[in-house]
């Protein structure tokens, strides 16, 4: 099987090259350009393509891939909301993903954001670099004894719950399905979680039900001076309402690894660009907000797991023994 990887970064090549010799039936080629209607033609002669969470896998792109002869779309990520599944089904293209790679990687990044914004590490780093050793504006709060609210208790949310529990926090959670592996967590309804949490961390998928679940109404339910962290999907938060909440001093801090309108920025160097998105510019203007570039997954362990599962998916498809948990229906 010949596979074309789109939007390939150095860390992608390093992680896949480290194990690809173990898959002698697979041939991999890399391009650094991302997937689009125009670049889909590059896939002619390939059996499969590999894309990422920020790639355009809309209906026109899927149709172009089908015209090029592609039969398999490998997503080297868990999310697939960027894939037009109806178009894929019509074209007879199978879509496979990596449902779980390293939940601890994302959860640890979520806590890193929470800790950094709490103790103002982003500000103190810059101050000390400029020989300013003043402590003014750096006061944080103890997480020990506080309440952490986890929205979504799948593998990543459960890992975050364990971290918060280890910090000595009281952990409450909201999810339609209770996770029996975290018996120290008390499940509550969303309004109670919002009202009672000092730290709120989002770990749920983006669906019609969760779209803009954090909005003016739900922000109004939150405790004053709460810390909010999102490492899941940007559209869980209605950003205009979030900005209004920041301006009204509702939040002690915000940590975002994802945000609305992030697609042009994710994984790209835009140092010399004027950011045309007012959303991004406004978020970056607040002193109590930390934004990172969708890097929650970026650990050596997670990259290895992503690489292995992606190539295992290709082999399963080739052998006609598809892992049902990895196929997108």
List its traits.
33% helix; alpha/beta; 329 residues; 5-stranded parallel β-sheet; 7-stranded parallel β-sheet; globular; 12 strands; single chain
Written description of the protein model:
33% of the residues lie in helices and 15% in strands. The chain has 329 residues and is α/β, with parallel strands linked by helices. Helix 1 (10-17) packs across helix 11 (300-319). It starts with a strand and ends in a 10-residue tail after the last helix. The model has no long low-confidence stretch (mean pLDDT 93).
Uncertain ranges: none
Structural class: alpha/beta
SSE ordering: EHEEHEHEHHEHEEHEHEHEHEH
Gyration radius (Cα, Å) is 21 Å
The neighbouring-strand order within the major sheet is 8-7-6-9-10-11-12
Strand content: 5-15%
Q: What about the largest sheet?
A: 7 strands, parallel
Q: What is the averaged pLDDT score?
A: 93
Shape: globular
Number of E strands: 12
User: How many distinct helices?
Assistant: 11
What is the rounded distance between the termini?
A: 22 Å
Measured as a percent range, the helix fraction is 25-40%
């Amino acid at each position: 099987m010949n596979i074309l990887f789109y939007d390939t970064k150095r860390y992608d090549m390093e992680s896949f090259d480290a194990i690809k010799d173990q898959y002698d039936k697979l041939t991999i080629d890399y391009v650094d350009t991302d997937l689009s209607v125009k670049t889909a033609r590059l896939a002619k002669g390939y059996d499969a393509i590999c894309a990422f969470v920020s790639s355009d896998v809309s209906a026109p792109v899927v149709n172009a891939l089908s015209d090029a002869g592609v039969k398999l779309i490998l997503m080297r990520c868990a999310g697939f909301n960027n894939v037009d599944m109806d178009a894929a089904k019509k074209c007879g293209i199978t879509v496979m993903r990596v449902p779980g790679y390293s939940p601890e990687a994302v959860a640890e990044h979520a806590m890193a954001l929470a800790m950094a914004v709490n103790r103002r590490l982003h500000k103190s780093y810059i101050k000390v670099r400029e020989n300013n050793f003043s402590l003014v504006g750096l006061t944080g709060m103890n997480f020990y004894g506080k309440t952490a609210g986890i929205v979504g208790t799948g593998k990543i949310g459960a890992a975050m719950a364990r971290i918060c529990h280890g910090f000595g926090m009281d952990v409450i959670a909201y999810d339609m399905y209770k996770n029996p592996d975290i018996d120290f967590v008390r499940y509550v309804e969303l309004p109670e979680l919002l009202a009672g949490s000092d730290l709120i961390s989002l770990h749920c998928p983006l669906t019609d039900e969760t779209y803009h679940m954090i909005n003016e109404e739900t922000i109004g339910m939150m405790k004053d001076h709460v810390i909010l962290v999102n490492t899941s999907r940007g559209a869980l938060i209605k950003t205009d309402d979030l900005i209004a909440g920041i301006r009204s001093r509702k939040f002690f801090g915000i940590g975002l690894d994802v945000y609305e309108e992030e697609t042009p920025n994710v994984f790209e160097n835009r140092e010399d660009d004027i950011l045309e998105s007012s959303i991004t510019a406004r978020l970056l203007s607040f002193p109590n907000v930390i934004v990172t570039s969708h890097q929650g997954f970026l650990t050596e362990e997670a990259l290895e797991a992503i690489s292995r599962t992606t190539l295992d998916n290709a082999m399963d498809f080739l052998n006609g023994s598809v892992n049902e948990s990895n196929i997108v229906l």
